[in-house]
Task: structure prediction
Amino acid sequence: MDAVTVMKQEVGKAAAALVQSNSVVGLGTGSTTAYAIQYIGERLAAGELENIVGIPTSFQAEVLAKQYQIPLTSLDAVERIDIAIDGADEVDPHKNLIKGGGAAHTREKVVDALADQFVVVVDSGKLVDRLGSTFLLPVEVIPMAITPVMRQLEQLGAKAELRMGIKKAGPVVTDEGNLVVDLKFEHIDDPASLEQKINNIPGVLENGLFVGVADVILVGEIIDGQPRVREIS
Ligand code: 5RP
Result:
């Protein structure tokens, strides 16, 4: 197994171990969170955990939760979320994130921001000094507004690209039926202000900057050939 997969598995397992019985759990999206969902399911099946319900952040999370027999609910049926576990595409030294590599950042932000404890699971390759240095910033846009929104995003200083499907002709369509624009900025100096500026453009649903939302970052690392999980809190 390659090193990145090992790191993802270990960090997913560490996050799943934080889930307690009788709790509502936000289930994130992506290949790292998929391991957390798997291990939560295994803890449930082993009788180590009981009475938990999951709130999925995407169709992917819903499918995985069903596969691992994790009962699901919706935000209409709960008063709070105890813990959310989710991946990220970049994490800066202030625990701010870029998310949306799986085009699920709108639902992810709703669920992750509501959780009493938001635990981010990443491999060490996701740590950056400054957001936007390795990953484009995703923005979910309603389809009828795509042309003016892309123009206004470029006026903010970004190069804007409509995300295209892989093994599917045409653009990526989100779980909510919208489009995704990926932004390349030279620098993201003030993520909090940029998050607000982008979301103020009419037609933008949500962008992938998660500022001040994460409580704990679990980082999968390989040290001296051994997998380790480091906690940043
Ligand atoms: C999906 C996300 C994912 O959490 C993010 O892309 C990380 O994914 P992975 O764990 O596969 O690297 O934000 O919208």
Q: What stands out?
A: The chain has a mean pLDDT of 97. The CA atoms of residues 77 and 135 lie 35 Å apart. The first strand starts at residue 24 and ends at 27. Residues 3-127+212-232 form a domain with the Rossmann fold fold (CATH 3.40.50.1360).
